[in-house]
Amino acid sequence: MVEKSQESIASYIESPEKLKNLYRRVLIVVSLSQIFGGAGLAAGITVGALLAQQMLGTDAYAGVPSALFTLGSAGAAFIVGKLSQRYGRRIGLSTGFIVGGLGAIGVVLATLMNSIVLLFASLLIYGAGTATNLQARYAGTDLANNKQRATAISTTMLMTTFGAVLGPNLVEWMGKVALSIGIPALAGPFLLSALAFIMAGLVLFTMLRPDPLEIAKAIEAHKQKMNKENQVPSMPISSNKRGLAVGATVMVLTQIVMVAIMTMTPVHMKHHGHGLAEVGIVIGFHVGAMYLPSLVTGILVDKIGRTAMSIASGITLLLAGVVAAFAPSDSMVLLIVALSLLGLGWNFGLISGTAQIVDATEPSTRAKTQGKMDVFVALAGASGGALSGMVVANSSYAALSLTGGLLSLVLIPVVIWSRRAA
User: Fold this and answer.
1) Which residue windows are transmembrane per the record (predicted)?
2) Domain contains 288
């Protein structure tokens, strides 16, 4: 069996056409899982804050659910990265999605039992689905060359759009379904998340064969062997550290700003008379803007560069913060514009930052390093989610939005510094 597996891997090294076909197949499988994964994100984003507000009876801790499932995603990102490095993308990603689905089931049980402790514990576990959905973008890059990486990332993220946009717009309907079976309405979307995350895990477990990371490791080992035989000097590892630092900074800052403003938008809307259906529409546009522009963004990152698109991210997030801060509270149109810009700025930052991380890693350590980078991203989101409720409770939604927009400008000197240093 081992010999047969080694022969199979060798055939991809010897046949560029076969490798190219596998690359395309991997993109299709990962994209399919992302459709389900995107739908699984809907519950936490759309009703997490409202659920906490209802069960705790205060706005001050409305950001806690976002913080918890983002904190849970930090731990999951590290574990999924380690699992992927040791056993391949198929095992790491499928495990993460299925665990996230079990967390969503726990949230539903917590609402039935009116248990805050179970709710918070389940939200931590639910974060595994969020982390895995984000880490799946790396799987598409394992077999891509450096001119295809951002495009590969964006292709899988684009497919997330279908589930991510549909999910928030099913919030009201899932609430009715939940009520019809004796479950609180706000827990309804978590039923959808449970099914979606588990389906995403099953798709990857059954279809992601052969494993792209294992093939990439074999190709790297083959290249190193050939370089050694031909006495070609290898690039020093230290040359990649700057790329890791800049890529992580770009992703961390965009995540803080996006999560903070996004988390408190449903609460802000509810305070000003907007219903759950209207919240779903605004969040649907936001999530659509997070993922739908991905294919174009990936091409731009590959064509005009990581630095330019990172700067574009900072400027777009600033515009989002300004529009959200000064938009009349009863204006659905301006809220949609603000949250769409917020999603677009996040999209620019995540894809350009991810591309820099992939550029700076090798297959032999790639998944483990990527998992560590996503831990920082998740912790940044947890901080943004936790602090957002406190800022709004003690100040205003406008102050939160404006502060987030200004914070995003830090991206510009960071990427300019990295370019000059390079």
Assistant:
1) 26-48, 60-79, 91-110, 116-138, 150-171, 177-205, 244-267, 279-301, 308-327, 333-355, 375-393, 399-417
2) yes
